[in-house]
Design a protein that fits this description.
Blueprint: H1 2-22, H2 30-41, H3 45-68, H4 73-94, H5 97-112
């Protein structure tokens, strides 16, 4: 009986560890984030696809910065700031004027709340 409980405990533990490693907070799929923005701004499918590409490119650049700086947060923040600003600018170029106004409000609201997720174009430290 003890062996069965031990095996069950190990399986639950391993499952939890695997889930925690594959579902890290703050890491999201660019396509899913573009779809979230689509709902918030009522984007067309073409706009959503373009924004997903922008998010993907930004994520790849972010990963390169992260590798280059070996996780040094202070150095990463300095290098990420222009990337965030460029991401916001690229997204705004895809939007209609009405959507851009809504996006600016979204960025401002998220920035005020201390957020820095994909949907706001990584705006937490971006200069608008």
């Amino acid at each position: 009986m003890k062996k069965i409980l031990l095996i069950c405990g190990l399986l639950i533990g391993l499952t939890s560890v695997n889930y925690a490693q594959t579902n890290k907070p703050g890491t999201t799929d660019p396509t899913e984030e573009a779809k979230l923005l689509q709902k918030q701004l009522k984007l067309s499918d073409a706009q959503t696809a373009k924004i997903a590409t922008i998010y993907q490119e930004s994520a790849q650049k972010f990963d390169k910065i992260k590798q280059k700086e070996n996780g040094n947060t202070n150095k990463m923040l300095v290098e990420i700031r222009p990337l965030r600003t460029a991401t916001i600018k690229k997204i705004k170029n895809v939007l209609t004027p009405h959507q851009a106004v809504k996006y600016d409000k979204l960025v401002k609201d998220t920035k005020a709340g201390g957020g820095n997720g994909w949907s706001d174009g990584w705006s937490a430290t971006a200069e608008n």
